[in-house]
Amino acid sequence: MESQTVRNNSTPAPERIISSHYDYGKVFQFIDQKGKELYGSRFVLCKGDQSVLLQLAAYFLRDEELCKKQKVDLDKGIMLTGPIGCGKTTLMNLMRYLTGNENRYIMKSTRDVTFEFIQDGYEVIHRYSRGKLYNVEYKNFCFDDLGTENNIKYFGNECNVMAEVLLSRYDLFVSKKLVTHITTNLSATELEQTYGNRLRSRLREMVNLIGFDKEVTDKRK
Questions:
Q1: What is the pTM for the complete model shown?
Q2: Which 3 state secondary structure label does DSSP give 149?
Q3: Other CB atoms within 10 A of residue 108 CB
Q4: On the chain, which terminus has fewer CB atoms closer than 10 Å, C or N?
Q5: Side-chain half-sphere of 169: how many Cα atoms within 13 Å?
Q6: What is the rounded average pLDDT of the residues 102-122?
């Protein structure tokens, strides 16, 4: 999981961006304050990340007007991409404080999912898609650091656990509108190489792609 700090030399004054519902300057101030509460006084929002922040905030506040302008589909989830250390995990943690209970999601490391698979086997795929085997319970998840996990062998059979989880959740996205969020360091080409074209195609339908600039500096340094 990424470092829980997004920092810069100084806290920028956020631009005054107002939609019909929200003053995003105040929204950014709230996120900055919450970040300091959770991660310490060194936490600040970076001015260069404002485009990413605006899209995320508009999505999780369910601001239809601004999402339409930003070409963000409220019926899909979010795939937040960017280099190591840019703050993806931190921001997705913070966005949970903007969203209502009906859209709340659980952060889950993809590596932890694969470790659970080693212990519990194929039940884990069911756990992160349909819920418990005998108690169907659909939940929104943010799968953190997609691509850092490895293929796992279970009783001699190799399984790409996250590919199977996401394919199962795609079926539920189509039938039940189940939302999935993802953070990843992988590019679209790397995603296809790791998980195959079938999953990459379905991810296009499931998620809005929001990305940090690939030249963004590592905020953990």
A1: 0.85
A2: coil
A3: 18
A4: C
A5: 31
A6: 92
